[in-house]
Amino acid sequence: MADQYQIRVLHIRAATTWHEEISCHLTTVSLEDSPQFEALSYVWGDAKDTLSIQLKGGVFPVTRNLEAAMRRLRMKTEERVIWIDQLCINQADIVEKSIQVAIMPRIYKSCKEVISWLGEIEAVNEITVEDALTSETNVQGVAAAGMAIVQEFASEKHVHEISCFQLINESTIITSPDYVIRLKYHF
Q: What residues have CB less than 8 Å from 48, skipping those under 6 apart?
């Protein structure tokens, strides 16, 4: 990529039904031009457990957790423009990867919102905070822990008052970009 603040963003094509194939393409933008995009924060999951999507007209493997996030996040009538590290950074190019990782704080600060994907969880209502925090460390365990904590906050119907969360609807909560940047530097 030409300048130090160029990134790729993913355009997820709209789909009117759940089972439609996930189809997308990449474009290159400069953060200097204040492009409009969202960013996805998520757990990759097992790199060997993949499903296929259509990317630039060809078949491309993505982790099962990312495929689930993309399926949930695509819209019915318009494309979604989003930065997803697994797809927007050439994972085979070590130089590009190091450059892009170095500007990730700016990517998250520049996006209009960060979407935190904890994963698909079945029977999450039956998981307590204590169970989630002591569960096996895997995608499901991490996602269960996150969902249990968010549900604990939401149980009093005050999740919208917590500065790091924005409640979109009863099943979608996003994290503000400013909070993600502060959280990254806190750890």
A: none
